[in-house]
Amino acid sequence: MSMETPLGRVRGLGSAKSGLIHWWHQRLTALALIPLMVWFAVSLIVIASGTYQEAVDWIKDPIVAGLMILMLAAGYYHLKLGMQVVIEDYVHTEWVKITSLVVMTFWCIGLALASIMSVVWIWLGG
Amino acid sequence: MADAKNRPLSPHLQIYRPQLTSLLSVVHRGTGVVLGVGTLLLAWWLIAAAMGPAAFETVQWFNGSWIGRLVLLGFTFSLFYHLCNGIRHLFWDMGAGFEIKTVNLTGWLVLVASTGLTGLTWILGYAVRGGVL
């Protein structure tokens, strides 16, 4: 019978594999965002400087509203995953790191929700 | 825990000799952060559109001001850069394009493409509206 502690036994054997989901989701959202961002950028050429009515009419199209919600959901999730890595890499003081992660996560969820609700609101008729 | 202090570190920004590869890597993260802050403007635009014409006017006034245009220009470049370089990253994830020659070539390609797409977007934007924004 080994006198080693469980921690001593696993140390050096590699990761717990939970990082894979983070990595994979970042790539999945990246892949989804390629066509979505191209669509959005091209749309903005026309719509960015338009009137209120043009913008609202544009978002009321169910395909536009749908693509917009997909873009917002994938975008904010991608942002959350990316910012998490940046914060974990560069912020080393524990409480500052944790606080930054909390604020960043709330930022992403809050803005994503507000943006998606706005799209749904406009889509349903304002 | 004895070797905890001797574990390898990522190259640190201040002591790492700048090269195209490291520079583009830093810019990828930088543009990611810029886009993250820029979401505030996108959210403002959408919320204002949901609120009504008056709120929307305010956003469009900001977007049309010189500082608004500067922010949008930075946002456009960040978007295209992060998009192009992100595609470069996805190829690396598939195990392709790691040779130094290829890495430098695709690096320059990303710079040219993102600058070109930014310029094209703004030229088209002005052409469509005749410079209203």
Task: Give an overview of the whole structure.
- The complex is a heterodimer of chains A (126) and B (133).
- Chain A is mainly α and 126 residues long.
- Chain A has one domain (16-123): Up-down Bundle (3 helical TM bundles of succinate and fumarate reductases).
- Chain A is built from five helices and no strands.
- Chain A has helices at residues 6-10, 19-47, 52-60, 62-90, 94-123.
- The model of chain A has no long low-confidence stretch (mean pLDDT 92).
- Chain B has 133 residues and is mainly alpha-helical.
- Chain B has one domain (21-129): Fumarate reductase/succinate dehydrogenase, transmembrane subunit (3 helical TM bundles of succinate and fumarate reductases, Up-down Bundle).
- In chain B, α3 (66-93) packs antiparallel against α4.
- Chain B is elongated, with a radius of gyration of 20 Å.
- Chains A and B meet through α2, α3, α4 and α5 of A and α1, α2, α3 and α4 of B.
Tell me the β content of chain B. under 5%
Uncertain segments of chain A = none
First-to-last CA distance of chain B: 59 Å
Average pLDDT confidence of chain B is 90
Estimate what percentage of residues of chain A fall within beta strands.
under 5%
CATH-defined superfamily of chain B = Fumarate reductase/succinate dehydrogenase, transmembrane subunit
CATH domain topology of chain A: 3 helical TM bundles of succinate and fumarate reductases
Could you say which overall geometry of chain B the principal axes of the C-alpha atoms support?
A: elongated
Helical residues, percent of chain A: over 70%
What's the total number of strands of chain A?
A: 0
| Main beta sheet strand tally, sense and closure of chain A | none
CATH architecture of chain A: Up-down Bundle
Structural class of chain B: mainly alpha
Give a quick set of tags describing it.
heterodimer, A: 126 residues, mainly alpha, 3 helical TM bundles of succinate and fumarate reductases, elongated, B: 133 residues, 4 helices, 0% strand
